[in-house]
Design goal:
The chain has 2 domains: 85 residues, Ribosomal protein S4/S9, N-terminal domain (Ribosomal Protein S4 Delta 41, Chain A, domain 1), CATH 1.10.1050; 89 residues, Roll (Structural Genomics Hypothetical 15.5 Kd Protein In mrcA-pckA Intergenic Region, Chain A), CATH 3.10.290.10. A hairpin with a 2-residue loop joins strand 1 and strand 2. The chain has 9 helices and 5 strands, in the order αααααααβββαββα. By secondary structure, it is an alpha+beta fold. Helix 3 packs across helix 9, helix 4 crosses helix 5 and helix 6 packs across helix 7. A 5-stranded antiparallel sheet has the order 2-1-3-5-4.
Length: 202
């Protein structure tokens, strides 16, 4: 399945949460999409519930099915709690890190910001959104006028967003440091990851 590029409000309404930035249309129609949406009272099976949680998280991070499953398999192969490791791997993606730092307003914008070459990691340009950051890495916005304007504008629009404790941001220099590995308490998705683990373990 390719990366989703369709109507975002429809996905928010389908799952009853703001996976993508909400808008006024979502407020006007809080029920699921479709002509039967307002009256839909369908009982979901355990399989459907697990599938929905999986799709929520996949849409949230903007991954294809193949990328999402590959990341899960990497988490499963490591020692520890699979669900927590899975979230860590997703959150340590460079595009997700740029979003968490507030250098981009949305996750889609963060992916584009990285892929267009506006970011350096440890002094080297990195334009791969799936690049995984590690503790001790230094992240900086490239010293071009366009890069800095984009990041500064995004910071102004994301002041109310709190930077996670595992990251340290320097607003003036437009740089950041990965202080440590993200912990489970640092990642709030509103999604039951254990149901995703059980879904893939069927």
């Amino acid at each position: 399945m390719a990366r989703y590029t369709g109507p975002t409000t429809r996905i928010n309404r389908r799952f009853g949460m703001s996976i993508f930035p909400p808008n006024k249309a979502q407020d006007r129609k809080p029920h699921p999409p479709g002509q039967h949406g307002p009256r839909l009272r369908r009982k979901l099976s355990d399989y459907s519930i697990g599938l929905n949680e999986k799709q929520k998280l996949r849409y949230l991070y903007g991954l294809t099915e193949k990328q999402f499953r590959r990341t899960f398999d990497r988490a499963k192969s490591r020692r520890g709690v699979t669900g927590e490791i899975f979230l860590q791997l997703l959150e340590k993606r460079l595009d997700a890190t740029i979003y968490s730092l507030g250098f981009a307003k949305t996750r889609r914008q963060a992916r584009q910001f990285v892929s267009h070459g506006h970011v350096k990691v440890n002094g080297q340009k990195v334009d791969i959104p799936s690049f995984s950051v590690s503790a001790g890495d230094n992240i900086e916005v490239k010293e071009s006028t366009s890069s800095r304007q984009l990041a500064t504008r995004a910071l102004e629009d994301t002041r109310i967003r709190t930077v996670p404790l595992w990251l340290t941001r320097n607003d003036d220099a437009l740089t950041a440091t990965v202080s440590r590995e993200p912990a489970a308490d640092d990642i709030e998705t509103g999604i039951n990851v254990q149901l995703i683990v059980e879904f893939y373990s069927r």
